[in-house]
Batch of 4 targets.
Target 1
Amino acid sequence: MVNSTARVIRVAEHGDASALQATTIPRPVPGPTQVLVKVAFAGVNYIDVSERSGKYPTPAPLIPGREGSGEIVEVGSQAQGGFKVGDRVAFLGQNTYADFVAVDTIHIAKLPDHVSLETGAAFILQGLTAVGLVRKGYNVQKGDWIVVHAAAGGVGLLVSQLGRLLGAHVIGTVSTEEKAALARANGAEHVVVINKGYEALEKKVNELTNGQGVHAVFDSVGEATFESSLNVVRRLGTLVLFGSASGQVPPLNVVRLAGKNVKLTWTTLYNYITTREEFEELYNEAVEFLEKDQLKVAISKVYAFDDVQQVHLDLEGRKTTGKLLIKIQ
Ligand code: NDP
């Protein structure tokens, strides 16, 4: 028998990490096309910070969280995918800082027996994002030069690994020597430690590519990196924006792209997985990398449910590397 309440982390009004407060709400009731998941781990993503603070236009009150793992405890009457009670799953959803979450079956997957619930929660959003970036944002080719910003972060470590796996030369940016070592261990052939501005990156790219620039830049930092990203991309290269950790990129006069015929895109994972088929295609490819041991998920810390304020402080304070999880139950 499932409890009739759910324990959640709620943000009543946008604000700093202290806005994250534990509370109890009525347990969600799954719709006909949904399943109810008893959540084991919620993955933490930078977007949770942006939504909590109000930098993203998600209205408050809100329950943060975009992914998790756990066990199915109820299945809606029209749920697709053949899910049943007891299945171990990982999923993308909303409001996942909670012990029970109703999830649409479009974005949920049964975990292979040997994949733990920790890895499932750690992998599903950032793993699919990383595969989407290197396949669809810019299709990385053997011999390419690519720049990966925030290369020791959750997504950054995975993009660096995939870049190397696909035969590219990866140049990562990070803010500390400690992060640099981790980025190197995860596929970044060259790492630039950023102290003040990103001019050091431009100098390094010039040296390494004989002034030609890189084939692609994967930029999740946004405002602080955008000008350098445009400077280091080569003629006919691609700049893939996918995040705004430092703030939004200001409006751009697109005529500037004519200088090098640069392709500019701002990609979101969700636009790659609008149907179950699209989700499965990306998920299967990502899981194959995982199963062949070609992709390692670095879970750097698992926080207790009552420690959720600390995880946000650490993430926005640039203190973290790799993946962060909250143990829900
Ligand atoms: P990370 O673990 O990468 O954490 C963010 C990192 O950004 C920091 O550790 C820091 O690394 C770097 N950073 C640079 N400048 C700043 C700044 N001014 N403030 C804070 N951090 C800064 O987070 P995630 O892996 O969760 O996400 C990475 C990015 O990808 C985020 O921007 C996120 O929104 C985006 N994203 C986008 C998706 C999409 O579909 N478009 C999906 C998933 C994530 P350092 O100190 O080394 O510079």
Target 2
Amino acid sequence: MDSTNGSQTLEAQAEAFFDSAPPLQNTHQITQKLDQFIQHKSSPSTNGDARRIVCVTSGGTTAPLEQRCVRYVDNFSSGHRGATSTEYFLKAGYAVIFLYRRGSFQPFCRSLPDDPLVECFEPTDELNIQVREAYSEAVKRAIVDHHAAVTGGHLLKLPFNTIFEYLQMLQLIATSMRCLGPCAMFYLAAAVSDFYVPWKDMVEHKIQSGSHFLDVQLVQVPKMLSMLRKDWAPLAFCVSFKLETDSNILLNKAATALEKYKMHAVVANELTTRKEHVVVVTSADNIIVRRDKSLSGNDVENPLIKLLSERHAAYIKDSSRQV
Ligand code: PAZ
């Protein structure tokens, strides 16, 4: 086994994590939505290209400290990477399952202000409102593009808050996407908790102050990337992310993750420069991908998704030759 904790195998750790996690609410509805979305995309009338579905994860997971949660440990991620990438994947012809942290950036809404409802609209009288002139183009674009993606069956959005919800939903999505074989892609941009308090060890009520120390034991979250590759969706094309603040260790850490979790690519990025350039680490090469500054409004995700969808297409072709 590639990862053991004491004498426990990874499978046993994963099982223990899922068995002790608070059950996901609406599992049945989520599974139904997923099945409908995937079936629609893989119906016989659609060509091979249209069957490509990517699961984009976005935003940070929380690790609650109390069962009736008031406090939690959070992971940094605004969701900008995931939301922007979703837009480019849709443009590239993918259907996208967008697994996102509630309240994080959303596809098609990046050019809107922080509080769009009150900033983009104004009252005309006591009963009516209108879009403010300055935002009319941005609001129209966001609504039209979002509507087209969702009603056209190209975009399915599923929210999470905690590490428990995230991993249970990722497992559901991956097992639902398994039928797509190599046409499935995972683009794992979410910042996922490395440590958590197991549900059974968590206090029920709000932790009381009164001591100088907060005494909570965090344990390592099982490395579910290996489960994804081995069991949940073994033929899918998998891209994970590695974030560091120390550029000296970034590429080594990304290369280690590539090998350890058998990823097809790891996108290495550094906190302060993550919107300017990233390095796509694969077993064959390391490719620096930069934002094209000569084009206004261009993002690093534009060339990144172009590169990854080309690599994915080559992977699908290779897989079909092997059958
Ligand atoms: O969400 P965002 O645009 O603010 O940041 C994106 C990111 C840095 C969270 C992402 O590119 C990333 O590296 N995710 C994986 C983080 C990790 O190593 O756990």
Target 3
Amino acid sequence: MKKILITGGAGFIGSHVVRLFVKNYPEYQIFNLDALTYAGNLENLKDIEAEPNYTFIKADIVDEALMKDLFEQYQFDGVIHLAAESHVDRSISDPLSFIKTNILGTVNLLNAARAVWNGNFEGKLFYHISTDEVYGSLGEEGLFTETTAYDPRSPYSSSKASSDHLVRAYYHTYGMPVVVSNCSNNYGPNQFPEKLIPLAINNIKKMKSIPIYGKGENIRDWLYVIDHANAIDMIFHKGTTGETYNIGGINEWKNIDLIKKMCEVLDRKLEREPGTSASLITFVKDRAGHDMRYAIDSSKLMKELGWKPSLQFEEGIEKTIEWYLENEEWMNRITDGTYEKYYESQYEKR
Ligand code: NAD
Ligand code: DAU
């Protein structure tokens, strides 16, 4: 039986990856290691927590000795590393926690794997999950490819860029089998409502203003989270060691157009007069160093491994909105005092 460590499995993307692996690979033992920070929520995995091939380990990847002990104890064969501080705005107010988790935490995992694998890399893989933000910001034209030079601009993307380089350094220096993927903006169920799409759904539902940074002209490429999880499955099993794969939705939206689209869908679903939700749009102070446009070329992944996004955005956003409306309790439990306090403090600053 293969022992697979998935870090950050209680978070948004991680929980979808854990579910996919637990369900599709009963022959694997899946270990979900997560510190349960504000972003980690085991409720995301309620439906699979009793499965015999699933184990949860509460641990902080910044704890070097603990990572060594856990690798010794469990002898993991594969690592899918998603644990990270993931929100750009938080990285602007508190860069150090990003450096600790995203850089130091990644090196702790690499060192622990290296110590236990001890040069015997047969059947082993360290798969690092990263972001398209490492490539910087695009103008009106062009797409990020796997060979685009790194140009991170926020503390978040700089910490992820650093971790990407370190993972590749362990491949070149120690021969550790690694693979890296860089993905665009994910959306779907279970995303923490500090990120644009769930934040907007929550605010629209509660008739609160929708904060749009700057003029709302920044562009993001959106991918349904299950499509990212499927790409991760494919790359983990069929990707070439030492390679990088870009993952994106071929689905660029200006923030303001995305929000207007969501307002239309929510007016319909909440049976409001057309235009009611859009009246909540509020332009606020721009994010510092706000990257203008991300767009990604996934043709390597599509050609080499046969991956493609399964959902059109119109279908994906409807499904996502429905999920948040049907899972009010999930959202209510998340938006308790702690979250509200953070949200209010961010909002006051603008
Ligand atoms: P998230 O913030 O929802 O979840 C992160 C998880 O990591 C949480 O469960 C948290 O408890 C855990 N964690 C944080 N610090 C930890 C630590 N020190 N030790 C152990 N666990 C810790 O993040 P997400 O949006 O699901 O992103 C997951 C990964 O995918 C990240 O590496 C992120 O950089 C990358 N990524 C995200 C997106 C996106 O759009 N969300 C896109 C591309 C890549
Ligand atoms: O590109 C991949 C990245 O996508 C991931 O690596 C990050 O972990 C993930 O958080 C996401 O980063 P973004 O900064 O693009 O996502 P966010 O949802 O925070 O913002 C999306 C866009 O919306 C961005 O241009 C900023 C803007 N925005 C965001 C918030 C939270 C607003 O206009 N208002 C808001 O309130």
Target 4
Amino acid sequence: MVSYSALVNKQREFYLSGATLDLAGRKKRIETFKKLLVENKKAIDDAIFADIRRHPTVMSDVDMTLGEIELTLKNMDEWVKPKKFVTPKDAQYDPASDELHLVPEPLGVVLIISPWNAPLICSSALIQAFAAGNTVILKPSELDPTFAPLFANIAPKYFDEKEFAVVEGGIPETTELLKERFDHILYTGCPPVAKIIMTAAAKHLTPVTLELGGKNPVFVDESADLSLLAKGIVGAKIFNAGQACICTDYILCTPAMKPKVISTLKAAFDALGDMSKVPANARIINDRHFKRLMGLLKDTKGKVVYKAGGETDEKDRFIPFHLLEVDSADDILLQEEIFGPILPVMIVPSFDAALNHIKRNEKPLAAYIFTENKEQTKRFVRETSSGGVTVNGSCAHTGGGLPFGGVGNSGMGRLMGKYAFDMFTHEKPICVRNSLKADFAY
Ligand code: NAD
């Protein structure tokens, strides 16, 4: 098994030389990454399509990362500025001679471990790691067998491995990599593997950011605008064939709403026709996940109340959207993250019972409510805990400059723009005595 010590040491030496501190150098690394993306856009788009069958017209990982780059280049002069504090006059300080500062400093060598379903956009955090003055080792998912080698092949054409390196591999290689000491690890994936990552990080007291998944609930109130429900569920379940961390995982509604929810979703998916005939529609990532999803359909005690157009096809790894009615929270469909085009509906007696169910289960990455009731919206947001909430839609709380991340079992730490920059930064408090008028600007 290959050892990663030499690579990590090389990056650490580069960091320790102070070469990553220079602001112009940080910007150059980001510009170089932009060049890499622009010059290889077609090859990257094609690789992602080959692996996930997600067409760039549906969502472009490259364009989204370029957006993050523009935002960072526009704002990083401000982000890296040390803050000067007003010195109080008290027993400890004298404003005539004492200066108080908060100086952002990079952490060092950052490891980013990506999932297969967002091979590049999850790695847009590496832009923030560069902006903060770190070096980066990226480990793409082995479940993207076209993207991972392509990216590992492109990266050295643009970067010396002392500043940015891509390491390919699955579990054995990642296990070996995790023996090294990093200064921060960003892992995106599932909670069981996150525990392995955190245990390895603990040996070196390395801080971690964990971007995980979970069972994202949807409550449909009797006041809900059902056209919004149709739009929200179709959008979430069609995108990546439901293989997204913020996908709607299960529906809770009262008995009165059940027939309305079923007929609304039935009409919405019927209108799409046979999705197996749409080439840009993502397929299940691999045979293991295909079998896992078929196993869920076999083992559930729930009843299929609707199956969308198209036939299940093992060779093409296509599963049409399935809507099921499930009686008990013990059912397998209510136990593990579905991550596919299957949606269970569970009847609850009331809104309070729905809140109770959500509160007593692991904190999800996202929670959704469809309602026209303001008071209920307030209670849902205040009384349940989740990474984020969209009201009357799905997945919409993940843009607009808002931070993105989970809580509890769905993760820790926040991504996007300045939030990710702060994650890869230590803000160091400084007191300078004797009126030095020190300047710490990069
Ligand atoms: P995964 O955990 O199987 O794999 C993610 C990464 O972890 C891969 O690079 C893989 O090589 C590595 N890995 C897997 N097993 C390992 C082990 N035993 N030791 C060390 N490394 C290991 O996750 P996945 O199947 O790629 O992605 C699906 C999960 O990711 C879902 O739970 C989904 O909700 C979550 N996800 C979360 C986000 C987010 O931003 N919160 C985004 C995308 C996916």
